[in-house]
């Protein structure tokens, strides 16, 4: 348990630190956030992507008198459900009705307290570095009284503003290699992304889920970050990683995805059972994280470019699949289970790969009954037609803006 005076001292110190900090780059998400009137606003994303900075910007703006508490402060280690009563006393004494709770997911049962404060008419803004904060399970625990948003590392437009540069091919390549983690872009120190990678594996996964075989978890994460854009199967990969049970591998996959470190894209199928048994394509949350932590030293930028295109697309859609029949199409973006965008990704179209890329795209278009799809390239424009179907090749930075 934590003493009420300790909670008060920590909250005061944290608020003072926020006052002394620069507000940082204004995030695109800042102006899209819904108002937390009768629902809790939940902002979720990977560690160090800027959630606390976004909170800080909100506190400097519309919520200057709000209460703020970051639950990952070492002085609050051991905070549990019983301590919420002492926190509640502080809030009632202060009379504040708007509360910012950062990384609250470290406290088991936090949803009960948030629901209580909502019932009391308070406004709640909550952040966390675990994707379960966006899950359907959370919706049931809060009985639907929450609005969720995802925060990623810097987008392409945010990267340009951070660098204070106009868009160009050279800047786009810089973005592809460096990614969007703010602290890394400020320092250029690879150790920032090495440490972030380890912190997620140890603090967000191993400690939280009681994993003792940390070395196997680290081997798996290193393999995945070195093989982005490739198919992975828990059953086939377990012996290579040194794990005996497929179920353990599946749990590790789930933990890695819940921590926002990786995304596992299924093969498109109208059957959920078939989706679950087919291999998935793996992508990382950030291309800079891939460049720094991958053990695959290669001049082939294709996988890195494909990962970057996935991230552009993932910001638009939560549901993405790959398509494979006779050929393969990289991405099918779905809305309510229906295809919204169909696209191939090819760093550079050449005589050697053009037929393969077109065949996969046209096959997917025929399957879904669509007329037009795109091939996302680094810097090529082109247009191809076949049997009434159209494939438009377009540079990535132009297509996604």
Tell me what you see in this structure.
With 401 residues, this protein is an alpha/beta fold. The protein has helices spanning 4-20, 51-60, 84-94, 110-119, 136-141, 156-163, 169-178, 182-187, 190-209, 214-225, 234-241, 246-258, 272-277, 287-293, 302-316, 354-368, 396-399, and strands spanning 40-44, 67-70, 98-102, 123-128, 146-150, 231-232, 262-265, 280-284, 319-324, 328-335, 338-345, 372-377, 382-386, 389-395. The strands form three sheets. It has a six-stranded mixed sheet with strand order 9-10-11-12-14-13. Strands 2-3-4-1-5 form a five-stranded parallel sheet, sandwiched between helices. The protein has a three-stranded antiparallel sheet with strand order 6-8-7. The longest helix has 20 residues, at 190-209. The mean pLDDT is 93.
Q: How are the secondary structure elements laid out?
A:
Elements: H1 4-20, E1 40-44, H2 51-60, E2 67-70, H3 84-94, E3 98-102, H4 110-119, E4 123-128, H5 136-141, E5 146-150, H6 156-163, H7 169-178, H8 182-187, H9 190-209, H10 214-225, E6 231-232, H11 234-241, H12 246-258, E7 262-265, H13 272-277, E8 280-284, H14 287-293, H15 302-316, E9 319-324, E10 328-335, E11 338-345, H16 354-368, E12 372-377, E13 382-386, E14 389-395, H17 396-399
Parallel strand pairs: 1-4, 1-5, 2-3, 3-4, 11-12, 12-14
Antiparallel strand pairs: 6-8, 7-8, 9-10, 10-11, 13-14
Helix pairs in contact: 7-14, 9-10, 9-14, 11-12
């Amino acid at each position: 348990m934590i003493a009420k005076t300790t909670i008060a001292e920590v909250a005061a110190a944290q608020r003072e630190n926020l006052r002394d900090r620069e507000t940082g780059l204004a995030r695109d998400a800042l102006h899209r956030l819904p108002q937390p009137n009768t629902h809790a606003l939940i902002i979720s994303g990977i560690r160090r992507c800027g959630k606390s900075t976004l909170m800080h910007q909100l506190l400097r703006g519309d919520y200057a008198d709000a209460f703020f508490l970051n639950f990952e402060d070492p002085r609050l280690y051991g905070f549990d459900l019983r301590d919420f009563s002492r926190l509640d006393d502080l809030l009632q004494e202060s009379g504040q009705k708007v509360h910012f709770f950062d990384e609250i997911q470290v406290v088991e049962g936090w949803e009960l307290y948030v629901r209580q404060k909502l019932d009391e008419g308070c406004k709640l803004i909550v952040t966390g570095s675990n994707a379960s904060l966006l899950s359907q399970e959370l919706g049931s625990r809060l009985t639907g009284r929450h609005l969720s948003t995802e925060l990623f590392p810097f987008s392409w437009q945010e990267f340009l503003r951070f660098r204070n540069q106009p868009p160009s091919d050279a800047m786009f390549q810089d973005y592809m290699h460096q990614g969007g983690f703010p602290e890394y872009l400020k320092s250029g120190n690879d150790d920032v992304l090495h440490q972030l990678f380890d912190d997620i594996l140890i603090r967000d996964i191993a400690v939280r889920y009681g994993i003792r075989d940390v070395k196997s978890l680290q081997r798996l994460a290193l393999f995945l970050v070195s093989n982005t854009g490739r198919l992975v199967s828990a059953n086939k990969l377990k012996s290579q990683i040194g794990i005996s049970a497929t179920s353990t591998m599946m749990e590790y996959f789930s933990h890695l995805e819940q921590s926002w470190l990786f995304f596992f894209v299924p093969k498109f199928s109208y059957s959920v059972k078939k989706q679950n048994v087919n291999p998935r394509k793996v992508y990382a949350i950030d291309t800079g994280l891939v460049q720094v932590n991958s053990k695959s030293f290669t001049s082939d930028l294709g996988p890195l470019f494909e990962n970057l295109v996935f991230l552009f697309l993932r910001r638009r859609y939560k549901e993405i699949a790959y398509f494979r029949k006779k050929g393969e199409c990289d991405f099918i973006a779905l809305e309510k289970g229906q295809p919204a965008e169909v696209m191939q990704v090819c760093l550079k179209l050449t005589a050697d790969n053009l037929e393969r890329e077109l065949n996969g795209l046209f096959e997917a278009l025929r399957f879904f009954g669509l007329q037009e799809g795109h091939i996302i390239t680094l810097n090529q424009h082109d247009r191809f037609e076949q049997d009434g179907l159209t494939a438009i090749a377009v540079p990535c930075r132009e297509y996604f803006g």
